[in-house]
Amino acid sequence: MIDLDDTDLKLLDLLQQDAARSNQALAEAAGISPATALRRVRRLVEAGAIERVVALVAPALRPDSLTAIVEITLDRQDEASRGAFEARVAADAAVQQCWRLASGPDFVLVLWVPGMSAYQALAQRLFTQDANVRNVRAYFSARRAKFEPRLDLGSS
């Protein structure tokens, strides 16, 4: 990782708010020249400070969809078993997030599926057929109160 100065932090904060703004608009908002903004953003991408640029699609496009938060506990706790499970679930398109935990359940997954039948198929595919999965506890979202992928970088 690279050392980030105040200008880098400002650029990152601005890009988290709206990555689709033009380089000219970004530079103006950051108080730097367009050439400096372009050079710094390229450096941030190359250094891995910016993982990727995406569009956040509104879940309302699929009103019948479900978001599930699922806790998984495994029987075997060795690194190979945990790594194999992690790789398998991370490869599934319905898995939006996969967190390996230090205490409590072994994993927490955030899933987005088009409906309950799709969740049941996913549960069969990822959990039921895996002999190492001891316990599955699923929670289904009734309403999204907040979703903010922005990181607070402490810039102002």
Outline the structure in words.
With 156 residues, the protein is α+β, with helices and mostly antiparallel strands. The chain folds into two domains: 41 residues, Arc Repressor Mutant, subunit A, CATH 1.10.10.10; 82 residues, 2-Layer Sandwich (Alpha-Beta Plaits). It has five helices and four strands, in the order αααβαββαβ. It has a four-stranded antiparallel β-sheet with strand order 2-3-1-4, with helices on one face. The chain is elongated. The two termini are 22 Å apart.
Q: Describe the largest sheet.
A: 4 strands, antiparallel
The CATH topology of the largest domain corresponds to Alpha-Beta Plaits
- The best one-word shape is elongated
How much of the sequence is in beta strands? 15-25%
| Structure summary, number of beta strands | 4
Cα-to-Cα separation, first versus last residue: 22 Å
Uncertain regions: pLDDT < 50 for 5+ in a row?
none
Q: What's the CATH architecture name of the largest domain?
A: 2-Layer Sandwich
In N-to-C order, the SSE pattern is: HHHEHEEHE
CATH-level-4 superfamily name of the largest domain:
Lrp/AsnC effector binding domain/regulation of amino acid metabolism (RAM) domain
Radius of gyration: 20 Å
Overall mean pLDDT score? 94
Number of domains: 2
Number of helices: 5
Helix content: 25-40%
What top-tier CATH class of the largest domain fits best? Alpha Beta
Strand order of the largest sheet: 2-3-1-4
Kindly name the structural category: alpha+beta
